[in-house]
Every structure is written in C-alpha cells, then in structure tokens.
TrEMBL record:
InterPro entries, alphabetized: PPR_rpt, TPR-like_helical_dom_sf
Intervals holding PPR repeats: 191-225, 226-260, 261-295, 296-330, 331-365, 366-400, 401-435, 436-470, 471-505, 506-540, 543-577
Pfam families cross-referenced by the UniProt entry: PPR, PPR_1, PPR_2
Keywords (A to Z) from UniProt: Repeat
Taxonomic source organism: Cucurbita maxima
Gene from which the chain derives: LOC111497049
Family (UniProt): Belongs to the PPR family. P subfamily.
UniProt keyword Repeat, yes or no: yes
Name of the protein in its database record: Pentatricopeptide repeat-containing protein At4g20090
Length: 665
C-alpha cells in the first residue's frame, strides 16, 4: 500500500468535510496510486462515519478495492475515466498477481477502444514471472498485437524471455526466441540483452558451439557484445572445460576496449583452480590488478578453495592474510574452506585456531564448520577437544543440525563409546532432528566394533520403524557386521529382506555377503553372488576389495589358475589391482608354488599389462610396491614406464634426476 504524508492526509480530510466525494477527484487527479488507500480510509476521513450494511452478492464482489473505486467514481461525479486510471489499475493488479481482475480491465479497455501501452504489458509479464507462470507471459505477449493492437518492442520480448529463463525452462526459451525471430518478420531486432539471454540459454543447454556462433553474429547485426556477453560465454566454455577458448575471449574482450569486471575474472579463476592450474589463476589475479580491477571476496575464496584442493594449506593461509591486508573482508565461506582444508590434512587443531580468529573478527561459525572440526578432531584421536568444541558451539547459541549430530555420534563410536553416542541420538530425536543414514550407520558400526552385534540389530530395527529411506546404507552396514561376526545365517535373512523390499544392494553389501559365504566355506555360493553382481548397475559393480576377497579364497584353496583368470577379468573390466592384490599373489607364489618364486616376474608382467591398457597411475603404484619389496622391474619395463609417464623432451632429465637420487651424484 502506498504511503501518504500527514500534509496530504489533512488536505484530503478537509476536502472531504467540505465536499463529500471530492477526495476521489483529488486522488484520481493528483495521487492516482493512492486510490486503494483512500477507499479503505473513506470512513476515517468522514466526520461521522456510519457503518455500511452487508452488500448483496453481485458482480462487484469480484472486484478488488481499487476496482470498486474505479467503477463507483464516475457515478459519483468524482472523476472521469482516463487511460491513466486503467494503467494504474493494471499496475495495482499486477503487483498483487490478480490475473482475473487484469482480464476485467483489459476487456473493458478493449470494448471502449482505449489505447494499451507496452509498459502495462511488461508489468503483467513480471507478475507472471513472480507467479511462476511463463506460459501465461507468452500468451499475453502474443495477445499484445493480435488482440489489443499494442506495438511490441524488444523490451517486451526480453521481459518474456527472462521470465521463461528464470523458471529454468531453457528449451522453451530457445523455442520462443526462434519462433519470434525465425521468420524475420518482426518490426524490431534483438539487442545486446536479448543476445546475453539467449547465449545463456544455449550454454545451459550445452549448445556451446551454437552459443559461440550466436556471439559471432552479433557485430553483423550491429550489436556489439558487452562485458556480460563475454562473461556469460566464458562461463559456458569453462563449464565444458574449454578453458583456453575462454581465456582467449578475455584477451579479445580487452582488445575490443571493453573493461572486464571482477565477475569476468572470477569465472576464469574458478575454472583454472578446479582444473588444478593454480599458476595461471594467480597470473590472472595479477592481470586484475594491472587492469585496475580489484579482486573481491569471491576471487580470494576461489583461490583459497583451489589451494586447499591441492593441499597447499600454508599458501592458503598466506593468501588469507593478504586478503585482510587488502581490506577485503573474509566471510564464513573463506574461513570454512580453510578450516575444512586443514581438517582434511589432519590439522584439525590448526583449524580450531582459525575458528578463534574468525570469531574475533566478528564472524559466527555455522554448523558445517563445527561438524568438520568435530569430525576431524575425533579422527585425530583428540576426543576431549572435539567434545569441548561441541560444548562451545552450544554455549554460543549455534543450534546443531543433523550433520553436527552425525559428526559427534560418529566420533564417539570411533572412540568406542557407542552407549554415549546412543544418548546423543535420543537427544537429537527429542529435539525434533531426524537422524540420517550416517548417524544410524555410525551407531551400528560402533556397537559392532564393541562386539555387541545384538544392540546393532536393535538400532537397525529402530531405524526401520522411523524411516525406511535409510535401509540401503544401514542394511549394508548390518550385513558387513553380521558377516564379520560369523552370523552368516542372520545376514542371509537380512539379504532376503532387502531384496523383498526392493532395496538394491550396493558394492559393500555384495562384498560383505561374498566374504561371509566364503569364510563359512560356501565358496560356490559366494562366486554365484559375484557373477550376479557383475550384471548389476554401476554402484553394485565389484571393486578391488571384492576381487581381493575372491583372490584370497581361491589362492588359499590352491586354485592359482582360476585366481589368475579372475585377475585377467578384473583388468579387462577396468578395475585396478592394489597392494593387497600383490600381497595375496606373492604369498601364494612363495608358499605354494614349486619351485618357490619371489614374484618379481609376476609383478613385472602386471605392470606391462597395465601400461598397455593406458592405466599409468595403477602401473606406477605397482612399480612403487616392487621397489619397496626390493624387486626392481626389468630394464625393458623401466623403459616402458618412463616412455608412458614422461613427456619426450623431459625423459633424459627424468633419468638424470633418478640417477642422482639413486647414486647421490
């Protein structure tokens, strides 16, 4: 409701006392937007207000307050209807989203042959966007010319296009654009905003080449790209990992005399950091300063996040100091990123110091920062510090969410205190915070670790009664615990229950059951489950742990040939062996083979086969394992490793460096 000053209110009160009905004339002429307000206040303006009787239901009941004034005003002689009155009504109805009443006004204007202006339709389009009705916006756009003879311009088109895009209907937005401009019969041409919007649409649809093509045709249509055009296209290219093309666009932008803004640089810096190219990202920051474009908190946060991903925490902390010295205020994201990075590196105590610094600068930590710290401190065996951080969080009024509760429950279970963790879970439920799969599974693991499998089963049953969504994760934990405890028969019961409930076992569940069956002597049943596993969806495909379970069983039975066949199948399916795989085969070759072998030739051949499949990282891990065991690869294998993993120009440098480190020369 519009505001009215005291002076205006007094003026209208006096006018109403002298001549009832005159205030309508004054309002409609001098303060048209106050019409609804003065309808409400008409009794307050009257010196002797009398209550109205309840009116009979008629067509007036459909009208709003401003609509009733609109209809009754001319009858009282208060004012004459003008186009401005209709426009005010449309504006009022559009702001409140009353589309049915908008139709009343439009119908009246059409019958009276009144002129409709584009500005009114743009207000209607915005109302459609607010009401999440992009289809209605398109219909109103089509009716502008066909029904109301209102000239369309690029402004009304852009308004409708933006409504469709805001709803995320990118395919519909493209169709609307092509329908309007496809026939080239429009009286108007796209402007820079139109191109910015449609380039955004094409990027969202993954049509990057079409976006580039549209960008290149802009100058041909006498429409020069602006900084937002470049930024939008660069963002699309970066999302498709075409970073070099995006960097080229930055150079082109500056060549064209268009000044890049922080958003432009941030798009590229973010892409380079995610790609691990921190040196180029740092150069871009230097370029920002040279162009007089000051890095903002997003720039610094992006760089700090990139450094944390690469494990360069000291540089991240140094950048934080630089950020503060540059008078760019760090926010919760900045501190949260650094604290999380420190925790991942096993430096949770340093993270706790950063938390103190953060609070000293007036920032409050959120639940995710606390959960990261609590989890990290427990993993580092600093349970007392973790509990202290929890208590401080509660004292500071930060209400724990499901993530923080989960971190505390998991930490207590790691410390062998599942009973205390269970109390926290009950407290969590009593405060209306529903435990998630992580909380339940952590508690179950805690009881299994303590040797109390019966309590773990009770937790699972309680979870079942609360929310069936947790079944998939928790059933896997239950199966693993029961099989490790030798309770295979009960595990099979749970397995059948999972299948009957339509729950698809994941790789953990399958691997646990296979191990349980094999340990119980049912190797054939375990292999049968393994072959069934290979036909499942990706999340249930066997991993290296699954294969190692079967390698160990087959080698223990002396069935080395079948184990090697399974190893070949493993390599063919894209699963890489690990150190445990090597141990299993080496022990078998040494203890069960006649004559005894040290396994060097076996591992050497495994490296060659991995290199042939372009699995360089896996091959290097096996080579490292061979060197640790003092089983150096063959000279030809060394040559293959160097050839596959080093750039041609650096092979000699690599060999020289290796020789120096080996012989100390």
């Amino acid at each position: 409701m519009p505001k009215c000053s005291k002076h205006q209110l007094n003026l209208l009160r006096i006018a109403h006392q002298k001549a009832p009905g005159l205030h309508f004339h004054l309002v409609s002429r001098y303060f048209p937007t106050f019409l609804p307000f003065f309808y409400f206040s008409s009794f307050a303006l009257s010196p002797n207000p009398t209550p109205r009787s309840e009116p009979e239901k008629d067509e007036d009941d459909e009208l709003s307050v401003s609509g009733k004034i609109f209809k009754s005003g001319p009858q009282l002689g208060s004012y004459k209807l003008g186009d401005a009155t209709f426009y005010s009504l449309i504006e009022n109805y559009a702001s409140s989203g009353e589309f049915r009443l908008i139709e009343h006004v439009l119908d009246r204007m059409k019958r009276e042959g009144r002129v409709l202006v584009e500005r009114s339709f743009i207000l209607i389009f915005k109302a459609c966007g607010k009401a999440h009705l992009p289809g209605e916006a398109v219909k109103f756009f089509d009716r502008m010319v066909n029904e109301f003879h209102c000239k369309q311009t690029v402004k009304s088109f852009n308004s409708v296009l933006n409504v469709i895009i805001q709803e995320g209907d990118f395919s519909d937005a493209l169709k609307f654009y092509l329908r309007v401009f496809g026939a080239n019969k429009m009286s108007f041409q796209p402007n820079v905003l139109t191109y910015n919007l449609i380039i955004k649409v094409l990027c969202k649809l993954g049509e990057i080449d079409r976006a580039v093509e549209t960008f290149r045709e802009m100058p041909l249509k006498n429409c020069n790209p602006d900084v937002f055009t470049y930024s939008t296209l660069m963002n699309g290219l970066c999302k498709e990992r075409r970073i070099d093309e995006a960097v080229f666009l930055l150079d082109e932008l500056q060549t064209e005399g268009c000044l890049p803004n922080p958003v432009t640089f941030n798009v590229l810096i973010d892409a380079l950091c995610k790609n691990g190219d921190l040196s180029r990202a740092a150069k871009l920051v230097d370029n920002m300063f040279l162009k007089g474009c000051v890095p903002n908190e997003v720039t610094y946060n992006t760089l700090i996040h990139g450094l944390c991903l690469k494990g360069k925490l000291d540089k991240a902390l140094s950048l934080l100091d630089k950020m503060v010295s540059s008078k760019c205020v760090p926010n919760e994201v900045t501190y949260g990123t650094i604290i999380n990075g420190l925790v991942k590196q096993g430096r949770a105590e340093d993270g706790a110091h950063i938390l103190v610094s953060m609070e000293e600068r007036g920032h409050k930590a959120n639940q995710y920062i606390y959960s990261s710290l609590i989890s990290g401190l427990f993993k580092e065996g600093k349970s007392e510090d973790a509990v202290r951080v929890w208590k401080e969080m509660m004292e500071k009024g930060c209400k724990p969410n499901v993530v923080v509760y989960g971190a505390l429950i998991d930490g207590l279970c790691r410390e062998g205190k599942p009973d205390e963790a269970e109390e926290i879970l009950y407290e969590m439920v009593s405060k209306g915070c529903l435990p998630n799969a992580f909380a339940y599974s952590s508690l179950m693991k805690g009881f299994f670790k303590k040797g109390d499998s019966q309590k773990a089963i009770l937790v699972w049953k309680e979870m079942m009664s609360q929310d069936a969504r947790h079944n998939e994760v928790c059933c896997s934990v239950l199966l693993h615990g029961l099989c490790e405890d030798g309770r295979v028969r009960e595990a099979l019961t749970v397995w059948k229950h999972m299948l009957s409930e339509g729950i698809k076992p994941d790789v953990v569940a399958y691997s646990s059951m296979i191990k349980g069956l094999c340990d119980a002597g049912s190797v054939d049943q375990g292999l049968k489950l393994f072959y069934e596993m290979q036909c499942q969806e990706p999340k249930s495909q066997p991993d290296v742990i699954t294969y190692n379970i079967l390698f160990k069983v087959l080698c223990k039975e002396g069935n080395l040939i079948r184990a090697v066949d399974l190893l070949n199948s493993m390599l063919d399916r894209g699963c890489d062996p690990d150190s445990t795989t090597c141990n299993i085969f080496l022990e078998t070759l040494r203890e069960r083979n006649d004559p005894c072998q040290d396994g060097r030739l076996f591992l050497d051949e495994l490296v060659v086969r991995l290199l042939k499949r372009e699995r360089k990282l896996a091959a290097l891990r096996i080579v490292e394992d061979m060197l640790v065991r003092c089983l150096p690869p063959d000279a030809s294998t060394w040559f293959r490793v160097i050839q596959k993993t080093c750039k041609p120009k650096k092979i000699q440098d690599t060999l020289d460096e290796f020789c120096k480190s080996l012989y100390g020369q």
